[in-house]
UniProtKB/TrEMBL annotation, chains A, B:
GO terms for molecular function: homoisocitrate dehydrogenase activity. Belongs to the isocitrate and isopropylmalate dehydrogenases family. Pfam families: Iso_dh. This is Homoisocitrate dehydrogenase. It is an enzyme of class 1 (oxidoreductase). The gene is aksF. Its cofactor is Mg(2+). It comes from the Archaea. The keyword NAD applies. Transmembrane segments: none annotated. PANTHER family: DECARBOXYLATING DEHYDROGENASES-ISOCITRATE, ISOPROPYLMALATE, TARTRATE, ISOCITRATE DEHYDROGENASE [NAD] SUBUNIT ALPHA, MITOCHONDRIAL. The keyword tRNA processing does not apply. InterPro entries: IsoCit/isopropylmalate_DH_CS, IsoPropMal-DH-like_dom, LEU3_arc.
Amino acid sequence: MYRITVIPGDGIGGEVMDAALTVLDAVDLEFEFTLAEAGDGCFRRCGETIPDETIRLVRKADATLFGAVTTVPGQKSAIITLRRELDLFANLRPVRSLPGVPCLYPDLDFVIVRENTEDLYVGDEEYTSDGAVARRVITRAASERIVRFAFDYAVGDGRGGVTAVHKANVLKKTDGIFREVFYEVASSYPQVEANDYYVDATAMYLITQPHEFDVIVTTNMFGDILSDEAAALVGGLGVAPSANIGKKNAIFEPVHGSAPQIAGKNIANPTAMILSTALMLKHLKKPQEAQKIQEALERVLKKGVMTPDLGGTATTSGMADAVRKEVLEL
Amino acid sequence: MYRITVIPGDGIGGEVMDAALTVLDAVDLEFEFTLAEAGDGCFRRCGETIPDETIRLVRKADATLFGAVTTVPGQKSAIITLRRELDLFANLRPVRSLPGVPCLYPDLDFVIVRENTEDLYVGDEEYTSDGAVARRVITRAASERIVRFAFDYAVGDGRGGVTAVHKANVLKKTDGIFREVFYEVASSYPQVEANDYYVDATAMYLITQPHEFDVIVTTNMFGDILSDEAAALVGGLGVAPSANIGKKNAIFEPVHGSAPQIAGKNIANPTAMILSTALMLKHLKKPQEAQKIQEALERVLKKGVMTPDLGGTATTSGMADAVRKEVLEL
Ligand SMILES: CC(C)[C@H](C(=O)O)[C@@H](O)C(=O)O
Ligand SMILES: CC(C)[C@H](C(=O)O)[C@@H](O)C(=O)O
C-alpha cells in the first residue's frame, strides 16, 4: 500500500489531478490518498501558500502528486519551498516524443537532470544603492550529489552518456567546480560516456542536434531554461512531466502552470500530469505499472484522442477515461 | 572616411575577416583599416590575450570588426574585456532567416538586445569553504540604458513591440528591478507595444511561437543563452552576426567561435562575418550600403553558393568573391 499525498492546487490543477487519479485508479496497486493544500486559493483561505501541514503530509507520504499553483507576485512560492524544505535535490525532466502529438522531432528520448536546491534559487538577494545583487551558490556537495544521481540514472535506465552543461568560461569558479566534480564522478562510471558543453551552445544543439543527447545534467537555472526549451521540441508544456526527488521524499508534477484562463472548462491537457504519475510509479519501483500508463496514454494519443491545445476535441475527463480504459485492457 | 580597427583573431577568424573585407571593399565608401591583435595567438606572441594597444585602437576607431578568438581556459577573455573596458553595453543579435539556408523557420525577423556589461558577467566570484559564490549584479542605470536602447531601436527600425525577458518570480529583487525599469521606460514609448515573459517560457516560445517576437530585451546571461537558441532557428552560428554597441565605440562580430578544427581549409562560412559588416554600416548611418551587402549575400545564398556547413560546396573566398560581385552590380 502506497501513501500518496495529493496537492491539486489552483486553476487547472484540480482537473488534471482528477484525470491522473482516474488513470491511476485503474492500475492494480493499492493507494491511500491524502489531500493537501497549496497555492493562491490556499492563501486566500488560510493566509499561507504552503502551510506546515502540507509540508508534513508530503514528508510522511511515499510520494506526492502536485497539480499546479498560481503564485501571485510577492507570495512565497509553494513548489520552491517544498523543493528546499524537503531537500528534493534532483529535478528530473524526461524529454520524449509522443505519437500523434504535433512536435518538431517525432523520435526524441532523453532526460534532463536539473540540480534543484541551489544556484540563483537560494533566494539570497539584496538591494544595493544602485540596484540589487543575487548570489549564485554552487557547492561541491550538491554538485556531486546531482552528478552522481545523473550517472546512476543513466546506468539504471540503460543510457550510454551523460553531458554536463555549464558556463565555466564565464563562471570560472562556480561552474568550474561543477565541471570538475562532474569529471571526478564520471571517472567512477567508465561504462558511461561523459562530455560537457557550454549552456549557450547547448541551447543551440537542442535544436540542431537533439538526438545526440542521452542524459543532461546541469545547474538549477540553466536546467530551468533548457528543460522548457527541450519540452518545446516534443510538443510543449502540456505534455511535459517532471519529478522532484530527494533522499526521503519525492514530488511529481507537470511542468505547466495553473493556466487560470482555461480553468473549469474541462479542456486542460492532462497528459503531463498522467505522465507524472507514471514517473511516480517508476520511482516507487513499479516499472511495469508505470509502463502500462505510458503505453495506454500513447495508444490514446495515437488514436487522436487529445485536448484542443494539441489540435484534438477531447475533454480533460474524456481523455482520462480513454486512458483508463486502455490501462484496464493492458 | 571611416577608421575601422580590424581584429582577425585566431582559427577561422582571419579567413572570415578576409572574406568580409573583400565584400566591404566593393562598397562605395572610404575606409582606413588598422590591424590589431587579440586572442590565444596574440598571447603566445606577446603574453596577453588583449593588449592595451588593441584596446586603444578600438577606442579611437569609428568601428571595429572582430573575427573570432580562441580562449584557453585560465586566459582572460578578449571579447569580455573589450565589452567591459569600452562599456559596450548593448549586444544586438538580429535573428533573420536567409534564403536557401536550411533552417526551422524560413520567415523569421526579430532582434535580441542583450545587456552586455553586468549580471553574472561582472566576474565577481569567490571560493567558499564548501564551493563558490558568484554575484549577479543588476543596476537600475544599466537596466534603463539597455531598455531605452531597445525601444529606440524598435522605433528606428519600425518595429511594433518590445518584450522584456527575466526571471522575476525567482530573482525578485534583481529581475524585479529589471522588469520595473522596463515598464517605466515603456511608458514613454506609447507607440510601441510592451510585454514581458519569464526566461523559461521564452525558451519555449522561441520554438513554438517565434513569429510573435519583434524586439526582445534581456539581461546578459539570459541573452547569451536565448540568442544562441534563436540563432539555431534560422540556420545556426554560421549565419549569426552581432554588434556590441556603446556610447562611443562599437564592435561587430560573428556569434561563432574560432573553430580551430576547420581553420586554414578555406571552408569556414563567412556569412556571419559579412552580415556583421552590414550591421556596422547600418551603425555608421549608411543603411543603403548595409542593405546592399545584405541583398548581395541573399542573392548568392539563393543561388546555392554556400559553404559545406550549409550543404554547399563553395569555399570561404569563393563565397566572398560571389558576394562582392553582386555588390558591385547592385
Ligand atoms: C514556477 C517557477 C518558480 C519554477 C522554477 O523556476 O523552478 C518553474 O519554472 C519550474 O521549472 O518548475
Ligand atoms: C565567449 C563567451 C564568453 C561569450 C559570452 O558568453 O558572452 C559568447 O558566448 C558570446 O555570446 O559572445
